[in-house]
Amino acid sequence: MTGVVNLGNELTSKQLxxxxxxxxxxxxxxxxxxxxxxxxxxxxxxxxRAASALNLKLVEVRIGTLDELAQLASICGNGNCDxxxxxxDPLLQNWRAQIVDIAAKQNLPAVYSQPExxxxxxxxSYSADIEERFHRAATYVDKIxxxxxPSELPIEQPTKFELIVNAKTARAQGIEIPSLILAQAHxxxx
Length: 190
Prior knowledge:
The protein has about 190 residues and is of the alpha/beta class.
C-alpha cells in the first residue's frame, strides 16, 4: 500500500490549540462527528489527549443524518459548550451551511478541518493543503503508470498546511483574532 495521507486526526491537536488561542475562555468544546469517517476513533482519541493538555472538556455530538443536526444546538446550546470542533468527515461536508449557521446562532467559536466551511462563513480552519495532496497523488499515479511498483513507493505525509480565518465572522462573534494567527494565515476573509 502507498499514497499520500491526510493526517486529519493528527491535526486535531493543532485545531484545538487554535480554538483555545482565539477564544481563551473556552472550557467545554463540542466535537461534531458522524462516527462513520475512517479516522473517527483516532480523531476522538487525539482530541481527548489534546483537550486534556489544554484543560478542555470535550462534549461529543455524534449525528448520522441532517435531521439529527439539530442535536448540535440542543447539546451545545444554553452554555453547555463555548467552542466547537468540526471533525474531518465527508458526510458533515454535505451539511456545511447548516453547521456554520448553527455555530453562528449559538455564538460558538468554531474550528473546522476543511477550508470550505470558512469560505461559507465559518470562523477558522486548519488543514493539510488539498492542492498539494492532489499534486503529490498525481505524481504517484504517474510513477505507477511508468512501471514503479506501488510497494516501492513510501506513504507520504503532507508538508504544507492551510490556516484560513474569516475576519468578518470573528467580528460578528466579538472575537479578536491574535495578530500572530493573522500573520500565519494563508487567507483572511474580510
